[in-house]
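Morning run. Coffee first, then this:
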Amino acid sequence: MTKSALIVVDMQEDFCPPVATRDWHPTDHVSFDTSSQPPNNKAFESSSTIWNPQNPSESVTIPIWPVHCVQGTPGAEIIPEINVSKFNRIIDKGRDSRVEMFSAFADAFGNKSEAASFDLAAYLKENGISKVFVAGLAGDYCVRCTAIDARKEGFDVYVVEEAVKSIDTGDDGWGATRGQFEKAGIRVVSIDGEEAQNIQNPS
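And here it is:
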């Protein structure tokens, strides 16, 4: 029988005001607006160049965000509407202050390192998982990168559309993300669709 896993991405207090993966950042994380100098420190507007700790000649440009999900703070906790006792594991990601880590599988350079609390791909494979369903925040960043990296790791990947919210819901954000999913062989499915029903009611 095919075994499936549900990956719930970053459903944390800082991203879900009053209304598992988990960002678990040090206070000086490179993506924070407080880590950049004016005028290039405007959250959601500015960007920053970071270098690969394992290959200093390699760099990438990342967006600047407000301070969020700092280790040990209430804002880093999974929201109470989610029953964390149902999770087999919670992976803490983004723990290295030097690098961005949208994906639950690897950092922005594709490195598997201490930036994450454990190797998610290895864990899933050790447990016989071949199919993953991805949900959470944000669709055009952490969900996108997690789903694409899961596909690169050889999993069949499904993104549950009703369980995803993007920062940019327009053509340049979620629209472009859906195009990347299609190119990578990732299916966007409905919670009411046959694929999701199979994981809720396995045979």
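DSSP finds four helices and eight strands in the chain. Good start to the day.
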